[in-house]
Amino acid sequence: MIDHHVHATPSKDKLPRSQQLAWKMAELAADPVAVDDEVIEMVINRIIDNASVAIASLNRGPIKSARAMALAHRREGGATLFGAGANVTVCAEWAAWANGTAVRELDYHDTFLAADYAHPGDNIPPILAVAQQVGVDGQALIRAIATAYEIQVNLVKGICLHEHKIDHIAHVGPAVAGGVATLLNLDKEIAYQSIQQSLHCTITTRQSRKGEISSWKAFAPAYAGKTAIEAVDRCMRGEGAPSPIYEGEDSFLSFILNGRTARDQGKSPYEPTYIVPLPAPGEAKRAILQTYTKEHSAEYQSQALIDLAFKMGKKIDDFDQVKSIVLHTSHHTHYVIGTGAGDPQKMDPNASRETLDHSIMYIFSVALQDGRWHHIDSYLPERAKRLDTVRLWHKISTVEDPEWTRRYHSHDPAEKAFGARVVITMEDGSIIEDEMAIANAHPLGARPFGRSEYIKKFKMLTDDILEPAESERFLDLVQRLPQLSAAEVQKLNPTVCADYLVENPAKGIF
């Protein structure tokens, strides 16, 4: 790996392309390096994982809206939609929109956490949509997905967005553009312009994950994927982008991220420097192996705490005898899904599912009481409003522990942690205390996910929706991904029974 030092640069210095981060990502996208067998296996796992959570969400509100919009943009020889069958095709960018929303809705697919946050599986729907529309085979699809993961994971390692209240989809756009460039074997110039346009058009604020969280949380990465496809299309037609998009004097680093802070303090505009690692030319793209999926349908930083709650709940006979629960955890967990966020909605039994999904206080209380977590039942309004749960929920608080913050940011996989130490104080003064660093399903956890676990998750989420023959058809097809023809790639989205899909009857513009 090569550590690239990236900083804002005055226009008068005319930063050469060879020194620009977008160009280095374009070079990565154009590198024809072979994909390792481990990476191929994980790409297959993540396509299965995406299909699991997408099929389970097909009749939820945001997905019905996104599908209706996509169906208004039919295209013969286009891309397919989750559930709709290979004979229903729409424009690739709209398939990316509908399918990306379906994947994201339940907050149940893969994750990567470092300086910032990421759900790298968000790259798969737009790349698959383009692959289907242009007609490429399984090998090309694998290479493209490996590129997209490589770009997003390494941007997340080097550039923190959330401290400036910028949503993490700003890393999704360039990753999708880079992946599509690999998919189509685009030259570096087109890839470079596409990556820049994609970043420029996908810089949005984190209000989508703050306060009263709405359905936009599901749409946000789908928007980034759709936008990236459109950016690549424009650049393939000869159009350009604002340059340099990362380092420009009035651009991303300078006026949205830390460059502004440096300027306000009278420092050189060359400070601070972000360090983004990328593979050297000819080096394999293996970043997908550093990512991890979810066993539970909730924000990733709650995964280990759900597992811990299952364990600790067995030691409590009467939850009304709990006096207080304090979660000693990392900065990110405290300020994003904990009481450090300062969001009263995180303690509100009338809050949306999206908000409850980002409240570790709610999640820990339900997991503690129920000893299980379910992607639907655990969020039902009647579950959230249960009086004994509300009483327990409101006794929970989080505090930042510097050691958990250090471990969260550690580059050592054996130290890196996303959990907490939990102290439960009972009314009689007794204390129940325990901690968990990583979720059971994490690659280093007690029960790491392998192919069988991904298939189990797929069946658990889809057995009541898909016909057994269709389930087996999809699983057989995706596990032969390296050998798939372009025609077979067209069939990679599972199809539900004709009468299963419920459509949104509301009329829009399209």
UniProtKB/TrEMBL annotation:
Family named by the database record: Belongs to the PrpD family.
Q: Where is each MmgE/PrpD N-terminal domain found?
A: 19-262
* InterPro entries documented for this protein: MmgE/PrpD_sf (IPR036148), MmgE/PrpD_sf_1 (IPR042183), MmgE/PrpD_sf_2 (IPR042188), MmgE_PrpD (IPR005656), MmgE_PrpD_C (IPR045337), MmgE_PrpD_N (IPR045336)
Q: Which domain of life is it from?
A: Bacteria
* Organism of derivation: Ahrensia kielensis
**What name is this protein filed under?**
MmgE/PrpD family protein
Residues in MmgE/PrpD C-terminal domain copies: 296-481
